[in-house]
Amino acid sequence: MLSRAARSASRTLVPAPGSRGSRQKHSLPDLPYDYGALEPHISAQIMQLHHSKHHATYVNNLNAVEEKYLEALEKGDVTTQVALQPGLKFNGGGHINHSIFWTNLSPKGGGEPKGELLEAIKRDFGSFDKFKEKLTAVSVGVQGSGWGWLGFNKDQGRLQIAACSNQDPLQGTTGLIPLLGIDVWEHAYYLQYKNVRPDYLKAIWNVINWENVTERYMACKK
């Protein structure tokens, strides 16, 4: 079963007309571990800034944009609704992506997945090592800021690797259901790895929470 944070982050971002009074604001999810729990692979300083500053900013901005969007809906102001769409996408995507990312990591992570997920990886990529190499390469190759993803193509019943720019959400951009996301914005690694993104990507495999990724995969198949 997916975590409460993951479920809440995946709910509809734009409220229905007339629901302003009862709209529930988005909130910053708690981490399931301490800021320093992922050391030495990801430092406590990075985790604290990434979670309490960057993710919190996406949440606060999303709530503010939704308020303006709802006002525009109630006024029938289509011009403003259209103008607010980029802000909804960026801040909503940032909230969704990070809520997945935190659960994809664990101090007890690393190694390889087991069971059906491992078999699916072998089927769709040839081997776990080939999958790891491909997702790493795609993540290294993101130009500027963005994310590398392992997703599930529900129509084809297969795993796929994709990259998204900035905070574009995987499902809204590609139709793939997100299973594992790797944040390659510089704020995710610069304080520790400087501008050497490949070193960060090599380290992050030591804290991937395969139990969480497997939960997401099994939920997709139902």
Automatic annotation (TrEMBL):
Annotated region (Disordered), positions in chain: 1-28
Cofactor(s) needed for function: Mn(2+)
GO CC annotation, single: mitochondrial matrix
Positions bound to Mn(2+): H50, H98, D183, H187
Domain Manganese/iron superoxide dismutase C-terminal: 113-216
GO molecular function: identical protein binding; manganese ion binding; superoxide dismutase activity
Role: Destroys superoxide anion radicals which are normally produced within the cells and which are toxic to biological systems. Destroys radicals which are normally produced within the cells and which are toxic to biological systems.
Identification of the protein by name: Superoxide dismutase
Organism, as annotated: Neovison vison
Gene name for this UniProt entry: SODM
